[in-house]
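hey can u check if this looks right to u? its 210 residues, i copy pasted from the old doc so theres a chance i mangled smth
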Amino acid sequence: MSMPGDEGMPAVAWTSVRNPAGFALRYVPALRAYLRYRCGAGNEAAAQADSILRTLLVHLIKKGYQGAASPGGRLRDFMRRLADRSAEAKGLPAPPPGEAETAAALRWLSSWRACLHDRVWHTLEHLEHTQPDRPYFSVLRIQQQYPEEQPNMQALRLADALHQPVKPESYQQLLAVAERAFRRELEAQVAATLDPASPAAIQSETEELS
């Protein structure tokens, strides 16, 4: 599926992409959520967060991933440092050490995780639209929304979504395949944010973001 930041992006380490700002568009939802947390509630705070985000993107357009020599480790660490520096440049003090810094770090991790998961969901939804015999998106949404239901009821929900009969045992088989597909796509999303993207690094980061 074509998503913001995907156009023309080569399969190289994030530290080596030719269009750093374009690549960073993939992660704007995480950056915006984190900056809005840092700025606080209210319309003025939201406007301040968006202003900081624009400053961050302009920096990437002008300087790219300057200071992130390959191997650059995790893109999410680089992006958080850049977000915090951009915020400080706009007069927003850094979270003080202790509980405030821990809370900010957890919020950033949560925002990053949500961003990557959303990309996986969008990919699986697009796959289902183009290949209806792979209804992984619908299966996982039903499982997410009705986890306590019996397979026969879940199968009925899937049958209603697909407009065709689905047996409970078929639902269970599809669910297992869909869960593997979600994991594979999450690993692919994670790999794009690691340098080097070794199997061990991908597995560790995927576990942390699952």
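Residues 99-130 form the longest helix (32 residues).
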